[in-house]
Structure formats: structure tokens, C-alpha cells
Amino acid sequence: MVRRTREQAAATREALLDAAERVFRDKGVAHATLADVAKAAGMSRGAVYWHFRDKTDLFNAMCERAVLPLERMLEQAGLVRLEDPLATLRALCLRGLGQLAADRRTQAVFEVMFHKCEISSEPGAAQRRNQATDRDCRRHLERVIRQAAATGQLPPDTDTALATEGMHAYMVGLMHQWVLDPGAYDLAHAAPALIDMWLAGLKAHPPRRASAQRKTTGAKVAPKSRVVVMQ
Question: Which part of the chain has CATH 1.10.10.60?
């Protein structure tokens, strides 16, 4: 009996999360209410409050159900010693793009996160959650890139913070644009070429820390008043 009750509760929670995806997608996070979610799920508001404290809690649970596994994979990759950091980074990126391309739930959640979280002067729950996730993602990503520099896959003076910002922006941009128009191209098929292109650029011309770059190249800063014209 207890097991059956737990299974029923879990099924109710999943149904509410499914309904939240639909409602947030249709109305946007800011304009949706818990009553809307309850109605979409065919349940009472009491059922929503039994499982979730408020709309923030519901939104976070909806996002985590779709993207938490990928976030945890990236976190673990940054915490362990990697024999081939760039290969691990490539595999993680492909896993993320592959899941987005193949899983309708992930597509729905990313659409909500990218396009249905209204921006205002005072960030709401959805914006704060997205900002916190981005910060965590960049932190874990930089740990992997640091390992690539430490193992010789990238130069030791690589500006890992700047490389991280570039990789993060590239991945978010790919996902953001593809969710807008999934029919534009086959993301799963194109993913290896897209990731390999960026990694090839990183390996060929990694960003360098400014002080180290000046030291190794012997570059001199020209006077500001001097203008050189190339003919």
C-alpha cells in the first residue's frame, strides 16, 4: 500500500511537471499561474501545493528534470583527473546537443528557458535560476579547460577564463538558435562538425593571457599617436 501511494505521488508530480512545460511554453513563466498548471493537469491547486512550494519551486523542478543530468556530468568531469580533457569536453558537448535534438522534453524546457522567461529590470525566479545555472556551467567548464592546459593539450598560458566564455557562448548560441527553428538543419547530424570546428580553432589559436603573450612574442606597444598605413 505504501509503495503504491508513493508511485501515485510520483506519477502526480510528473503530470504536474508535464503540465507546467505546456503552460510555461504557451503563456511564458511570468504570466502563468499555478491555477493554470493545475487546470492543464486536470487537478486541483491543492495538488500543486502538495508537491511544490510555489511557482519558483515548480519552475526549478521542471528545468532540473530535463537538464540536471547534463549539468552533473559536466560537474563530475571538472572534479576528476582526466587523461584527455578535450576529448571529454567534446563528448559532453555532443551529449548535450544530441539530447536537445532527440528529446522533446529537453526541447520544451530549453524553449521555456531561452524564450519564455521574460526579462525585466528586477530578475524573477526564472532569470535567477538561469543565471545561477550559467555560472555553475562556466565554472565546471573552466576546470576541464584548465586540465587541457595542464596536460599540454593547450599552451600553459592559455586564458582559460576567456576560452570558457567563448565555449559557453558558442554552445548556448547553437541551442538558442536551433530551438527557435528546429527544422533549419539536423542538429544531431551536424553536432560533431560544429563542435570539432570550435575545438580546432581553440587548439590552433587559443586565447592567451595578455602578460604572457607580450613576454613570449616580444611585442611592443606602439605610441598612441603613431599611425601605420599598410600599402
Answer: 1-52
